[in-house]
Amino acid sequence: MIVTVTPNPSLDRTVEVAELRRGEVHRALSGRLDPGGKGVNVSRALTRAGVPTLAVLPSGRAPGGRLQGLLDVLGVPAVTVPIHGATRSNITIVEPDGTTTKLNEAGPVLTVEEIDEITEQAIARSRDASWLVSCGSLPEGMPVDFHATLVRRSRTRTAIDTSGAPLRAAVAAGPDLIKPNHEELAELVGRSLDSLGDVLAAARQLRAGGVGAVLVSLGAGGALLVEETGEWHAATPPVAVRSTVGAGDATLAGFLAAGGTGPDALARAVAYGAAACRLPGSEMPAPHGIPLADVHVGTPQTELALTGDAA
Amino acid sequence: MTDQLITADLVDLDLPSTSRQAAVQALAERLAKAGRVTDLAQFLADIEAREQQMPTGLEGGIGIPHCRSAAVTVPSLAFGRSTTGVDFGAEDGPATLVFMIAAPEGGNTDHMTVLAALARRLVRKAFKQELHDATDAAAVADYIQKEVGA
Fold first, then answer.
1. Which CATH class is domain A2-298?
2. pTM of the model
3. Where are the domains of chain A?
4. Pairwise CA distance, residues A187 & A50, whole Å
5. Looking at the complex, does the CB of residue A233 fall below 8 Å from at least one CB of chain B?
């Protein structure tokens, strides 16, 4: 069982219009409603992979109810903590030429009691779990050490996927696994990481600081894993990309579904990320769509350029 | 890295383009002739099986037929250029630049992780333009090896 925590989930509505014009009434060509949030995405991917999971998330007012309903339809088991504020609703407007306009709500302000309840539920529910995975941004008013507190209190292995100050705080608490992307890792160590060697050095630095394992998602560059037993880089031939939304979440889910350690789990992580890129929106891949044979795992080639014109 | 992924004899600047199979066959034969593929029929079957699973065409006129195969002795990249284009299943049309990636079954595939570099090059206009404008196979092999090889 893998327990995920999403402190700031969302109800994501995607509307397609012929052309967006300010101040006018538009007739939508299509519309869809998706559950949003990194931990929620990880649980969705695990559910599709047949791995037992439980999503812990706050749920407020009508949007919270709709979000719960969507998770029910997808068969994702969830524990929702009732909150007074409304779960945020995000609107994405897509035009036929690919132009995407996003309108994101700030999200609810949670009370101290509500935050405590999410923490208590996460700790209690993950007591016998193999992983406690806490992901994403924090809603207004939530202390930056939310993820860090879970890491300190958890009795099981913890994986953290977030950015900025919450990631910095979580890293200081010594999680078993973090999954930053290239930019998040660069921000965390405070320098640009232009080559795979630079990324490797940053990951080693974090391990030396107390993080158990570092899984860095590198977009088209695949992913790098640095852990106790070794260091590996995995990549696939270039794939046709429809949407990179949720690809990092799929990467983490694939890694955990395959045991959460070692080169085989890294290969699965990269296969999941590539598969998610081929799917629209934040749709999570199913096991039959995972091109595992496409993934190549090897020793990190430190001179491989990752940014700039040389990349 | 000492081993070359691609050499001049693995470059075809006038790729047979009557069908995807013809294009794939031409590049595969180059790999076989170079001793990088031992069993041509097996290799072609593995390439086709992968293509059937999911087309390897990318937007912008790119085809990337590839497979992991017991018929491959050493990680290799073959490149073909087509003026008319070859259909690799991309939504926006046929491929004029075809990269064939051959990886050995199991074992060490350190070389193949440099494929990550190929993805980044392919979105760069200058990289594709260089390949479109090139007139010399050896220069193309050197250029790709330099750009993609780590």
1. alpha beta
2. 0.92
3. 2-298
4. 35
5. yes
